[in-house]
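Anyone up for a design puzzle?
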């Protein structure tokens, strides 16, 4: 049974690789990619969420779509090594970012505005603590 599962997963994996055009699908997003996709520009999920939480009756569907992205990309942040500064310290901050992203997503799924918003505040105020030690100039 174990053997069968193994064979199946090898086939599934090869199929995925074919569809991905030979690219290494398992490679985590780089820090730069995560930063750009989530934070950069007026159209970034960070800004969209900020606006979405201001509504009296938030649009939970779009908040959930956005918060999911924070979890997916946030998971990759601690998989990277710090480009600058103490590596263990970076991991700690990156893990904290991921934890807050998960709390944001959990709150969004439950449509719990105080919980989701509190977690979002932690995400959106985490920037400087990490940049000051770990962002190359
Ligand atoms: C755990 C650490 C960490 C946290 C938290 C973090 N950043 Fe970053 N950020 C970095 C690092 C490291 C870089 C530099 C990446 C590189 O140049 O390879 C960076 C780069 C960036 C960049 C430049 C991307 C580019 O175009 O090159 C932007 C914009 C940015 N961060 C925004 C933010 C914002 C906004 C927040 C908070 C909501 C945030 N970051 C939180 C570590 C972090």
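Challenge accepted. My sequence:
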């Amino acid at each position: 049974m174990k053997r069968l599962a193994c064979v199946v997963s090898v086939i599934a994996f090869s199929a995925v690789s074919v569809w991905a055009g030979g690219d290494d699908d398992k490679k985590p997003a780089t820090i730069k990619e995560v930063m750009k996709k989530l934070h950069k520009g007026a159209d970034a999920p960070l800004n969209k969420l900020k606006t979405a939480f201001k509504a009296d009756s938030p649009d939970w569907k779009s908040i959930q779509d956005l918060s999911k992205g924070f979890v997916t990309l946030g998971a990759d942040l601690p998989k990277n090594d710090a480009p600058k500064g103490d590596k263990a310290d970076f991991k700690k901050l990156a893990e904290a970012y991921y934890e807050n992203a998960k709390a944001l997503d959990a709150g969004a799924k439950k449509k719990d505005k105080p919980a989701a918003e509190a977690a979002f505040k932690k995400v959106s105020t985490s920037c400087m603590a990490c940049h000051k030690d770990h962002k190359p100039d």
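A detail worth pointing out: The two ends are 53 Å apart (CA to CA).
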